[in-house]
Design brief:
Elements: H1 13-20, E1 28-29, H2 41-46, H3 63-73, E2 80-83, H4 85-97, E3 101-106, H5 111-118, E4 122-127, H6 138-142, E5 151-155, H7 167-179, E6 183-187, H8 197-200, E7 212-217, E8 230-234, H9 237-246, H10 254-263, H11 267-289, E9 294-296, E10 303-308, H12 315-323, E11 327-328, E12 330-331, E13 342-346, H13 350-365
Parallel strand pairs: 1-11, 3-4, 3-5, 5-6, 6-7
Antiparallel strand pairs: 2-8, 7-8, 9-10, 10-13, 12-13
Length: 367
């Protein structure tokens, strides 16, 4: 078995190829959390007809794109900022707000802490408790908000736990943050996959709270990470102006601008995605929650966190067994508060899901 100190990310297919001698084209990545349907058929069909867009600069204000996103997200286009992936927007936001002490709901994506650190700030974690199914205990959480914190970061639904905070719970959190002068950044990368999206998404709250910014992108739901298109939504017009002042012009290329305008209107693809993920999420959770040797945490996003209960099996072992069958899962032992008993995988087409489940169950049955 290959032992690695740096665990493989969902995009690390080249590293996998080098380590295991497996062609990256043959790997099915259950680690990347990307829509298994691939890019929007409408985009695939029409983008080539728009190739001449690269002969001119994009609109500096990206007005048409922002209006399209606003119609999709249910807000005014004046509330939208677009960027070269949500990573650029996180970075710009941190540069402007310059938080000295941030509170992060964890375990979660490491980029938040990294950006805060680059800005000279420090991060504290509020750990979601395993015994509570990694669901937030709002009453207890509110007691950890105080004037010494100037930024709260919440990924919702959360990666890797696939749990979520409702917008009713978020109102309580935002009210407390307002009292303590804490700005709130919510990453909604996975919200479109949720069955109860209307109970989770916080875009409507931007009309009532000026201490709130929401981040989204097209990498996961629209299966287009290579286009590097992200967007943020806020009701704080001063913040939006400040971000736009600091942004370099034309960070989104012409094809990404055109592609964004197309994919957000592909309603058939959007509905097919939601139906596929919803049915496979319920099927796989029901299947694994009944298996001895595993504990599956109820998911709300397009991926699931699972704990291995068998003493002689680790997430390293499971990763190794799966990748040798060209199936890549996420070993979660590098996430804060998780051990080498946790792994995560996203939902793919039913046939591929069955292939992975068979591999996992075979590992459990070995002596």
């Amino acid at each position: 078995m290959i032992r690695h100190s740096d665990h493989f990310h969902g995009s690390d297919l080249e590293a996998i190829e080098a380590a295991y001698g497996i062609k990256k084209e043959n790997i099915t990545s259950f680690s990347a959390n990307v829509n298994p349907l691939g890019v929007s058929p409408l985009l695939r069909k029409t983008l080539s007809d728009k190739i001449d867009a690269i002969t001119s600069y994009p609109d500096r204000e990206y007005t048409s794109l922002r209006k399209c996103i606003a119609a999709y997200a249910g807000c005014d286009y004046s509330q939208i900022i677009v960027g070269n992936g949500s990573t650029e927007l996180i970075s710009l936001f941190i540069q402007i707000k310059h938080p000295q002490k941030a509170l992060i709901l964890g375990p979660t994506y490491s980029e938040y802490e990294r950006e805060i650190s680059l800005g000279g700030g420090t991060s504290l974690y509020y750990p979601l408790k395993e015994e509570e199914g990694f669901k937030i205990n709002v009453g207890d959480f509110l007691t950890h908000l105080h004037e010494g914190i100037d930024l709260l970061v919440i990924c919702n639904p959360n990666n890797p736990t696939s749990t979520s905070v409702t917008n009713e719970q978020m109102r309580l959190i935002l009210d407390h943050c307002k009292q303590h002068d804490i700005f709130v950044m919510i990453d909604e990368t996975y919200v479109e996959f949720a069955d109860n999206m209307e109970e989770i998404e916080c875009v409507p709250l931007t009309l009532y709270y000026n201490n709130l910014i929401i981040l989204r992108g097209i990498s996961k739901f629209f299966a287009a990470p290579g286009l590097r298109l992200g967007y943020a939504i806020s009701g704080n017009m001063d913040l939006i102006k400040e971000i736009n002042k600091r942004k370099n012009p034309w960070t989104i290329n012409s094809l990404a601008e055109v592609a964004g305008s197309i994919m957000f209107t592909d309603t058939e693809y959007i509905e097919q995605t939601k139906q596929l993920i919803s049915s496979e999420r319920e099927r796989i959770y029901t299947l694994l929650s009944k298996r001895e040797g595993l504990h599956a945490y109820q998911p709300t996003a397009n991926f699931m966190l699972v704990k291995i209960l068998r003493k002689n099996l680790t997430s390293h072992d499971l990763f190794d067994a799966a990748i040798r069958k060209n199936l890549m899962i996420r070993d979660c032992s590098t996430f804060p508060f998780l051990s080498n008993k946790f792994f995560r995988f996203c939902f793919m087409e039913p046939e591929k899901n069955d292939e992975l489940i068979a591999c996992i169950l075979a590992c459990l049955e070995q002596d």
